[in-house]
Amino acid sequence: MPTAPAPLKMTNTSDVKMLGVAEVFKGIFVVNALVKKTDKNGRPYWEMTVSDRHGNLNAKIWSDAGWWDRSTPDLESKADMLSEAGINGLKGKVVGVSGKVADFRGQTQYNFNAITLLNQEKYPPTQYIANSEIPLPVLAERLDSMIESCRPEIRDFLKSVFAGETGSAFRDAPAAVSNHHAYAHGLLEHSLAVTDSAKAMAKTYADIYPTLDIDVVVAGALLHDLGKIYSYSMSPVPEITLPGAVLDHIALGYAAFDKLASEADLSQKLRLEIGHILLSHHGQKEFGSPVLPATLEALIVSAADELDFKLFCWKDAVKDLLPGQNISAFHFAAQRRFWRTSADSQDETATGE
Ligand SMILES: [Fe+2]
Ligand SMILES: [Fe+2]
Fold first, then answer.
1. Phi, psi at residue 299, to the nearest 5°?
2. pLDDT tens digit string along 285-338?
3. 33, 48, 196, 203: which has the fewest Cβ within 10 Å?
4. Ion ligand 2 contact residues with beta carbon within 5 A
């Protein structure tokens, strides 16, 4: 008599990416995005992005997949078919999926063949949302000491910004919907990394450029992406808002900064200098900045912002490399493949082998 196959172990998104072609998996994830499409035979299929605390996974769901509803306790023991409206409403919900790894023209493809909408009280979406790897109290302490390091006028202004509702929204916000720091507290993590790096650069150049104002660098770096608190929402997954889509974070951030600066009676000089950093931080007009960095402080913040973004892209690209692989898949946001050099190859270089 044939033995039943061993039940599948639950996998997280990182485990799934380690599987080979034809291997099967199952897991519990939150749905980040779901787009209905039509194949060349006119049949519907869906592209779904799911996430858990380990990362994201993009998958295809073909028309023969099973969609099941176990969202309420009376459906726990059995599962009804999920309606089309139910399928379309899955964004932000926790689902159980089973799937298989496939190869499509040399690219790994993940196919989900059964999706079950789970009881959201039993499986709360917040438990499957990625957070910053750095605990919030650690980030909050770094923010406080960075603010305390500034001279009184800038320190008191930053305190007033980060004390109220703006501050709590800033602590919770992601830094993006995808691409970089797209998780809860990601904006704070990114802003602090940019500030640390910008401050270190400013200190390095302070002797050569004596007018360089390190406290303006700190204020500009902490606030450069302020507009992202209005551009993105966590509902419960990172999502772009209407103002974010049509006004973008640079304009939104400058408007919010100008209002906060006016309420705090910040000097005209600082309003211009810090406002200029917010508007110019993307470094190029084609990247959304209406003006190019024109001050020492704005040049430094813009460089630090670009560096933190690219370093994050490197980390994101190499984290799913299999042992023995060192070149990443093409990373669209950074427009390149990344290279993970290993300790071994450094030794080889060092020994000239
Ligand atoms: Fe930005
Ligand atoms: Fe940024």
1. -60, -40
2. 999 999 999 999 999 999 999 999 999 999 988 987 888 889 998 888 899 999
3. 203
4. 225, 305
Report CA(237)–ligand 2 centroid distance (Å). Answer: 20
Alpha carbons within 13 A on the beta-carbon side of 92:
8
Q: Are 97 and 50 contacting, i.e. CB atoms less than 8 angstroms apart?
A: yes
User: Tell me, what DSSP letter sits at residue 127?
Assistant: G
Residue type at 244 in one-letter notation: G
The two structure tokens encoding residue 16? 């799934």
Quote the ligand 2 centre to 314 CA distance (angstroms). Answer: 16
Domains located in the chain, CATH noted: 13-128 (2.40.50.140), 136-313 (1.10.3210.10), 324-351 (no CATH)
Spatial neighbors of 30 by CB under 8 A, at least 6 apart, are 50, 51, 52, 92, 93, 94, 95, 125, 128, 129, 236, 237
β 232-234/80-81 pair status: unpaired
Q: Is 152 helix (H, G, I), strand (E, B) or coil?
A: helix
The bound ligand whose nearest atom lies closest to the alpha carbon of 283 is 1
pTM over 0.90: no
Residues in the chain: 353
Could you tell me the distance, in angstroms and rounded to a whole number, from the CA of residue 82 to the centre of ligand 1?
40
